[in-house]
Amino acid sequence: MKPLKNDTYLRALMRQPTDYTPVWMMRQAGRYLPEYKATRAEAGDFMSLCRNAELACEVTLQPLRRFPLDAAILFSDILTIPDAMGLGLYFETGEGPRFERPVTCAADVKRIGIPDPEGELGYVMNAVRTIRRELQGEVPLIGFSGSPWTLATYMVEGGSSKAFTKIKKMMYADPQTLHLLLDKLADSVISYLNAQVAAGAQSLMIFDTWGGVLTPRDYNDFSLQYMAKIVDGLTRETDGRRVPVTLFTKNGGQWLEAIAATGCDAVGLDWTINIADAKRRVGDKVALQGNMDPSMLYASPERIEQEVATILDGFGHGPGHVFNLGHGIHLDVPPEHAGAFIESVHRLSRPYHAG
Length: 355
Description:
Elements: H1 8-13, H2 34-43, H3 46-51, H4 53-66, E1 72-73, H5 80-84, E2 89-92, E3 96-99, H6 106-111, H7 122-135, E4 141-146, H8 148-157, H9 165-173, H10 175-199, E5 203-208, H11 216-233, E6 237-238, E7 241-242, E8 245-249, H12 256-260, E9 266-268, H13 275-282, E10 287-292, H14 301-315, E11 321-325, H15 335-349
Parallel strand pairs: 1-4, 4-5, 5-8, 8-9, 9-10, 10-11
Antiparallel strand pairs: 2-3, 6-7
């Protein structure tokens, strides 16, 4: 593998000195880009795009051709693991993901096996290998997974949810069954992410999209402890350098200290927390990733620049900040606004890293 030409993102995650604050965007390979829409149309549907290594590589690289991003992220979906567990994933137009066979009881959980990352999930590893080769060392490649709790919400609810009544019913009425499912998912995520590292991923991210719907105690018992188990089980070195791990719980700002104590290298922040407060609370224990409201990209480039300046000022001087949106980029954002955002981060952040 070629040596990295730009390792700013990896160094920032390790809180090492950098010349500027690195930036990438959640969902940077996606629906806001016309070239993505064309490639998806060629693939036929979303999962066909994920399963085709060449096309998944193409859409991963598309934003890098437009913008000087500091990292690439594997193009895939968080629901690949439940799909490989045989739950029958499909996508309903306008409805999002659905499962034909949701998990309803202990017998369902016992039937589920831990997927082989080079078997049922081999198409993901093929995509990682293809992307890593085609990147030619330009920037690092991020691998990722959903968190056990977040994956379980889809598996038990049968798809997306607003109230999470089915999984919360299981959590309170039959907690043993849910713990059995979460433990199986944690083991699956460990093997899945370690296989991504073996295939070429240089950094890992765990998306806990729905951890924020829990009470503080339930967050610890049903989400955080399983992410901590994953962090403990991950390969943390490859090619002679550390593989940094970022944990991101949407609406998880109240639990920052607990997330930072898992042994992860970085904590992702959504836009509902002030980054200056976050830095005060975790000190130099972990790097911070975030945290501009994705909707800010609807604003004028001048307003976007102001917001970037505010967030950089909030984090202040020194290493340990990866600039990102507080969640995924919206599908109707003008690509040139994303470009203005990235340019502003690179230009305005340099004084914070000088001397």
